[in-house]
Amino acid sequence: MSFLAREAVQERLRKRIEDVVSGFRQNIGIIGPVGVGKSSLFRDFFQSISRDHRLLPVYIKGETIDGRQLAEQWMGAILCSVMLGRTLNIPASLNAAILEAEPIIPSTVQAVKHIQRLFQQEKNSAAVRELFGLPLILARETGKRVVLMIDEFHELGKLPVPDAFAILGKQIMPAKEVLYLVTSSARDRAIEIFREKLSLLFGNFEVLEIAPLGFVEVEQYIAARMPAHRWPPALIRFLSHMTNGEPIYLDLITQRIESLEVREIPQPVSAAALIDAFCQELFDRRGRIALLFEQRLERCVGISKNGGPYLRALVSLSQGRHKLIPIAASVGETVAETTKVLKRLVLAGMVVKSGSFYHLPDSLFRFWLREVYLKRHSLFLPEDRSLRKSLFDKLNAAFDSCERNHHCDVGSRVEALLKEFRNDTVEFGQKKFRCPQFSEISLRSLPNSTVSILAKGGLGRWHFFVSAEWIGETDIEAMIQVGKGHRKIRKRILIALNGIDENAKLIAQESRMHLWGLRHLNAFMDYYDLPKIIITTRTKAYDTQAKQEGSSMGAVAQGVPALESR
Q1: Residue 137 in contact with residue 108, Cβ under 8 Å?
Q2: pTM of the predicted model, to two decimals?
Q3: Which of the two residues, 7 and 432, has the higher pLDDT score?
Q4: Nearest 5 degrees, angle CA 472-CA 476-CA 482?
Q5: Which of 251, 165, 230 has its CA nearest to residue 200?
Q6: Residues linked to residue 409 through DSSP beta bridges, in sequence order
Q7: How far is CA 57 from CA 22, 51, 145, 260, 499, in A?
Q8: Domain ranges in the chain with CATH number 3.40.50.300
Q9: In this structure, is the dihedral angle defined by the CA atoms of residues 116, 122, 123 and 127, taken in order, positive or negative?
Q10: In sequence order, what are the residues at sequence separation of 6 or more whose Cβ sits closer than 8 angstroms to the Cβ of residue 282?
């Protein structure tokens, strides 16, 4: 999560706190990949509001072993909320929490005891219904607003009832004294829950999608995290490329470098040190990133009694297979069975489906699966230094490739992308976009570092404008004039990599010009196994727009317009 995004989200959360205190409730859902910083954001926010006498913050971690443990955690968190700031011992069990809380909130405790009895009697539906009703009981008993923070809320599906979210929806609606703040790393599953399971509430949830850090934010992060070290821009680009700007990986890699390079006099971090840090974190059995990935695979195996097809599907995706039929052939299962496997991986938040593509969004995880996990499990002899050297060589090659791509102009890289289109379908949100196969592609340079690309295919002529600079009204008007010189254009697409003025955006839309941002372009790059484009500069106007668009889904960390598709 970028510093800008973190600020924007925290500001939005604080605004919702004041709203609920004044009698207006707007629940918030935060969606983002594992490692982007959602949980740390929640924990920090929890601490920041814990001393507000108007509030009772309740933090529930959704990632538990099973539904019964989740129910106990829910009840325990409710009871412990009244102990914040009191000189009480933090209870180590639910029964201990009941004893501590009973003198303070007797009605809520009686409700908890009743829920326990319902679970013991296996009246699970009634138990879950009353479980979800606890926050409202707490709010009315204390006269305070309850801020219910549920991390990985999609895990509520573990509760022992057929449809926990339908029950939840009925409890949320009347609970005006309870503010719901939820997160999820399973994007597709979360969106499905909002749209299908909580359809009556969708309008009462503001959904924010958090993106990883861009180059500028990574640069800022490193400056704050390692002030005694100087980082050459090439190393920051490589770090951004390998980690995709995921804060958890940035933190672990920089910690590793600090342990490798302890210096009293500030010196540039070397490429060798950065690559060595990646080697240790990815290859060594005690590398923390490697341990995170091993745990992820264990969860994958836990999806089904036979985890083999799931592991093989992940490996296949890491090798660049994105279509169903090639994946099925690699996994060794029928197309129908592979479809089931991929669907469960999507629902688990490990794989993303977009149109005809399946994709592993975590670039470092992809690299580890391909260069460490697969090779380690393919050895016929005990491991030796050759496997580590192979990883070292791959990292060096990735570094060189990152630099070559950086010095290649953006227009040529977009041209290379368009040459890969094969009448595929890509989906962003609920909008589908068809990628036609082009037979002719021609480039032309325009002012303000803009590139005009004409592409001709079976679906007619398409006109692309690509700009790595901030786009204003005059820029849009110039593009429109250029476009008038080309007739019979089926689609006009503006790829704004560094933001666009709001008025310019309106003019573009009125001219029936589709808008893509950096996030959308890099999604295409990922689907076609092309290196992502890294923008190393950012205008003040970009920052301003990002703050203004902080409430729109998918724009908090990007500051780019949402994909337009007609």
Answers
A1: yes
A2: 0.81
A3: 432
A4: 145
A5: 165
A6: none
A7: 17, 9, 8, 41, 37
A8: 3-209
A9: positive
A10: 289, 290, 364, 367, 368, 371, 372, 391
Proportion of the chain above pLDDT 70, given as a percent: 89
Least confident among 114-128, 273-287, 545-559: 545-559
Measured in whole angstroms, the distance separating CA 471 from the mean position of its chain's CA atoms is 27
CATH of domain 410-548: 3.40.1350.10
Tell me the C-alpha distance between 418 and 438, whole Å. Answer: 7
Please tell me the total number of residues recorded for the chain in this structure.
566
Query: What residue spans in the chain does CATH classification 1.10.10.10 cover?
Result: 289-376
What's the alpha-carbon Rg for the chain, to the nearest Å? 25
Asked if 444 and 451 touch (Cβ cutoff 8 Å), the reply is yes
CATH 3.40.1350.10 region(s) of the chain? Answer: 410-548
Contact 400, 392 (CB under 8 A): no
The token pair that represents 213 in the structure block = 């850090």
Residue 7 has pLDDT above 80, yes or no: no
- The Cα–Cα gap between 291 and 125 comes to 37
Tell me the CATH number of domain 3-209, given options 3.40.50.300, 3.30.420.40, 3.40.640.10, 3.40.1010.10.
Answer: 3.40.50.300
173 confidence band (pLDDT: 50, 70, 90): confident
pLDDT in tens, 25-76: 999 999 988 878 888 888 889 999 998 999 999 999 887 768 888 999 999 9
349 or 270, greater pLDDT: 270
Answer left, alpha or beta for residue 341, where phi above 0 means left and psi between -120 and 50 means alpha.
alpha
Cα–Cα distance between 240 and 250 in angstroms, integer? 9
Q: Is 564 helix (H, G, I), strand (E, B) or coil?
A: coil
- Per-residue tokens: 15: 């605004």
The CATH-assigned architecture of domain 289-376 is Orthogonal Bundle (1.10)
Torsion of CA 75, 76, 77, 80, to 10 degrees: 130
Distance between start and end Cα atoms, the chain: 30
- Cβ neighbours for 141, distance < 8 A, ≥ 6 positions apart: 105, 107, 108
Q: Which residue has the tokens 């303000």?
A: 448
Q: Which helix (H) or strand (E) holds 58?
A: strand 55-61
Q: Rounded to an integer, what distance in angstroms lies between the CA atom of residue 197 and that of residue 194?
A: 6
